Amino acid sequence: MSARHDADLTDALLLPERFGAWFAGRGWAPRAHQLDLLRLAQDGRSALLVAPTGAGKTLAGFLPSLVELAGKPARKASDSPTKPVGRAPPPRQRGLHTLYISPLKALAVDVARNLYRPTEEMGLAIRIETRTGDTPASKRQRQRADPPDILLTTPEQLALLLASADAPYLFGSLKRVVLDELHALVTSKRGDLLALGLARLFTLAPDLVTVGLSATVKDPDDLARFLTPQRPGAARAAVVMAAAGARPDVTILETAERLPWAGHSARHAAGEIYEAIKAHRTTLVFVNTRSQAELLFQLLWTINEEDLPIALHHGSLDVAQRRKVEDAMAAGKLKAVVCTSSLDLGIDWGDVDLVLNIGAPKGSSRLMQRIGRANHRLDEPSRAVLVPANRFEVMECRAALEAIDLGAQDTEPLRTGALDVLCQHVLGMACAGPLDEAALYAEVTAAAPYAALDAATFQDVIAFVATGGYALKSYERFAKIRKDKKGLWRVAHPSVAQRYRMNVGTIVESPMLKVRMVRSARSATRGPSGPLMRGGRVLGEVEEYFIEGLVSGDTFLFAGEVLRYEALVENEVYVSRSTAREPKVPAYAGGKFPLSTFLAEGVRRMLSDPAEWRKLPSQVAEWLELQRTVSVIPGRDQLLVETFPCGDRFHLVAYPFEGRLAHQTLGMLLTRRLERRGLNPMGFVANDYSLSVWCLTDLGAAIRSVDLSIAALFDEDMLGDDLEAWLDESQLMKRTFRTCAVIAGLIERRHPGKEKTGRQVTISTDLIYDVLRRHEPGHLLLRAARADAATGLLDIGRLGQMLSRIRGRIVHSDLKRVSPLAVPVMLEIGREPVYGEAGEALLAEAEASLLAEAGMAEQT
Amino acid sequence: MTARPGQISETTIALLGRGFVADPSGALWCPASRLVVVSDLHLEKGSSLAARRMLLPPYDTARTLAMLAAVIARYRPRTVISLGDSFHDRAGPCRMAEADVVTLRALQAGREWVWVAGNHDPSLDGALPGLCCDEVTEGGIRFAHEPTPTPQGGEIAGHLHPCVKVTGRGGSVRRKAFVSCETRIVMPAFGAFTGGLDIRSPAIRSLFPDRMAVFALGQQRAYQVAA
Fold first, then answer.
1. Across the interface, which of B173, B192, B225 has its CB nearest the CB of A847?
2. 8 Å CB contact of B170 and A834
3. Structural domain tally of chain B?
């Protein structure tokens, strides 16, 4: 008997006849990794499946569940082993078997749709349901009492289900958990929340088997740790690598237009983008931010002479509108969708034959996942075109293309669990029932992101949840949880649980306001509550800080239209339709993802090697040639620093290529140093590639006269005291603190019955931060915020690596005017908020200009 | 009404011919009558919200009193007027920590102290040393918590927590602010946990039908900025 025959026999045993016939009926054969997962499931082993898009990943994840459920007779209600007593829920059929968690609501809905087909075609009596924030309350209640066989949901919904008293009933029967798009989930605090939820599931159902589905990552073994309890001697999850798909066909758009210096809108290429859409069946147009999506969508419609069905999809749009777009897409009614990461993940759009990625790719793994959206079939190559929006992005796209050729991945290692998320989870577990501190500590540290959590910190978390965890114990009587006589923590009041449920989750957007369309009240005499202002539909939500900057009559882009801002009425932004073609107020359009180290290295290498420039469009090559003539092209491991006057200021521009976050941190630290040297820095601005600091004093002259040593200016020691001192004062830190305060439950996003007066109850977290920092600098929430700031927002690790890399390798170019390479960052000036001491200078300047206007110029 | 920055690094707001120094802390100092005015201290706001299980840091009272102590040490006033909403709620004084009570009494010692009633603390009678009243008038200027639509003579009030957003070449900052015209000054909120209302909002705008002068609080002094 040949080995091949052996394998066939085993396969036949793995896959029941009904399933084999179904595969054959569709002209398919089960793929090796699908059978591998079946085999591992039979052995009760958890597994991580790493597969490219289109490899039948989702089916592979569910196949073991379907096979198991197909062989299980549905239990009659009367057979229920546990007879309900009193107010217990009605008997269930056979209990929840498989839980599927996805990072996106839309994905859960889509996967459900895709599962109905095989179950119906095979005639399997399996109940599959979704549960998301949009599921009606009645259905949610029914699901608790009578759960389906397979439930598809999100990490937040899982947290909510686990925080209820009936969690043991609901999850006691659970056999399998499928975690979709795991690579995307684990990079954020949502991943931490999921890890903690998973740890609780292992407690409720000890024999639970997990399956993680992931796109290609750099270190699969590291990711697999997420899937099993991290205890000594515990079994590890197996890693199954699916065969790679066809090589994608990716090109960079060779624009005939003039390439912009700065900006991220790709406005110049709108016509070429439109032509590409026209030439394909269905196109997904990916952009990096919501405002880019808005802008491009509007641009496309202004030139959409053939009225092609082009839609818009981003997370701030109203749910109903998003759903409409998704349905139209699935039905093949759309020619193109302009979307953000809201459609990044594995929704199966069978007919997409082109992916356009507008702007910078930012990371090779991210780009490869996006490209995988086209042609969701493994054996056909995906077709994608990268559309750089400015000259630096051309180099970044080029570097990304080379990364794709090499199959190089740049995903991050598994993160350390955040303390604010743990605070939220602990309260949730107290809401589920009396909580034993030691048992919960053991459970939590079994979750991979929290494996290194020490007992003392865990106690701080408990203290925070109970009374705020302050050294000054004055809130005992207001405690959220209290120890009972048996030493178990219990929720002190039912309202605590209610408020927990309203505030669950880790996605803290900037405060959002509903945008409502009204008829314009342009007459100045009519108040904002006049009758004409009422009614109108809700278009979606917009960040509060954005609206704060507007005055009535300003126009801005939202939901694909130019809108006129009318008024802020309670928690709603009233807008009317505008006839303006161009919005007056542009939204900030920078990328929210930092440039990956890997691509940055690629860009640096390309820049340093003129031979490489031939591969670049002539406009970019000419730009770099000009730079070589008038200034310097930095070597691969060098840092170029240019100084030049511009207007009445003196600028210092550095090119570290380490991403906007690291550059912002560097800008702040440089400003402090220059301040101390009396060089009067006035401000700075950063983009992904470089940063510019401006001063009132001639920096070039200071360096020439050896007053200022450039090596000392960029010395690594700036990461010491300077960083600490600045960090505590910084706006970034305050923003980070706000997120932590909301997630940890110090500040509530929603109060029961308080929606109307919510704005009076809320208190600025900046004020809380200032007071807490002064009086209790070691408080848990400050620790959480500092950890977040160091790893995420400030990219301090990356900055440190850069500073040590460039030691002794700084090239100073002292110029008479702005260099070609500096133009992009110089164009960003004025778009960023001011941090730290620059605020004081700004106020003084504003006063001076006011006085000058009034003919009262300061007499000094 | 003029602002004179630069000279002594102080910003002065004039009202009915009297000069008031706009302190960067948000206090007003009238050297002529050795008077310090502060508004909207909102003491015990933290514990007030904690009673609703919003467990904010219990240090706001200590912080506000420390800032007030600095102002008093700087000017050594004969009189302090706290212009209403001195406490976040009526029961505030009873919730004060012992150490904060001691601090407050020390600040009050040796000077006249006036608690003007606010909407958050309509009656503090007897809870603390000092004179409690609905408003006081001195030298033709009415000191009250809530501004009146058309003041007779001059008026200094609080209640509205004015804030201003200043946009410059490098970006923008948002600061608490004094707002004034010939007949009135609306003071910024002094308390550590007090937020702000934009000066463009109708509640503030409507008090200044003709013109308003805005003084944004900086770190070293208050700066006059465009309305």
1. B225
2. yes
3. 1
Rounded to two decimals, the pTM is: 0.81
Residues of A in contact with B174 (CB under 8 A): 548
Calculate mean pLDDT across residues A69-88: 53
Tokens of B76: 């050594």
B-contacting residues of A 655-684, CB under 8 Å? 682-683
Phi and psi at residue B67, to the nearest 5°: -65, -40
DSSP assigned state of A793: I
Look at residues A356, A341, A107 and name the one whose alpha carbon lies nearest to residue A213: A107
Please check whether residue B7 lies inside any domain of the structure.
no
pLDDT in the model for residue A348: 59
- For the domain A249-406, what is the CATH code? 3.40.50.300
Taking Cα atoms as reference points, which of A395, A363, A370 lies closest to residue A384? Answer: A370
Shortest Cα distance, chain B CAs vs residue A509, angstroms: 20
| Segments forming the whole domain that contains residue B174 | 12-225
What angle do helix axes A780-788 and A455-467 make, rounded to 10 degrees?
120
Residue A739 pLDDT more than 50? Answer: yes
Compute the count of residue pairs across chains A and B with CB atoms less than 8 Å apart. 150
The answer to whether the CB atoms of B6 and A859 lie below 8 A apart is yes
- Nearest-Cα distance to chain B for A470, in Å, is 7
Residues 6 or more apart in contact with residue A656 via CB below 8 angstroms: A639, A662, A663, A666, A690, A691, A802, A806
CB atoms A772 and B59 under 8 Å? yes
Higher pLDDT, A135 or A535: A135
* CATH 3.40.50.300 residue window(s) in chain A: 3-76+91-241, 249-406
Which residues of A fall within a CB distance of 8 Å from B50?
468, 474-475, 478
Judge whether B3 lies within some domain: no
Cβ separation A472–B58 shorter than 8 A: yes
Give the pLDDT score at A523: 44
* CATH hierarchy code of domain A3-76+91-241: 3.40.50.300
Q: What is the mean pLDDT of chain A?
A: 83
CA nearest to A819, candidates A621, A652, A601, A603: A652
Partner residue opposite B171 with nearest CB, options A493, A833, A860? A833
Q: What is the pLDDT of residue B49?
A: 92
Q: What is the pLDDT of residues B98-107, one digit of tens each?
A: 999 999 999 9
Confidence of residue B133 (pLDDT cuts 50, 70, 90): very high
**The CATH number of the domain where B209 resides is what?**
3.60.21
Give me the interface pTM, i.e. the ipTM.
0.89
How much of chain A exceeds pLDDT 90, in percent?
Answer: 42
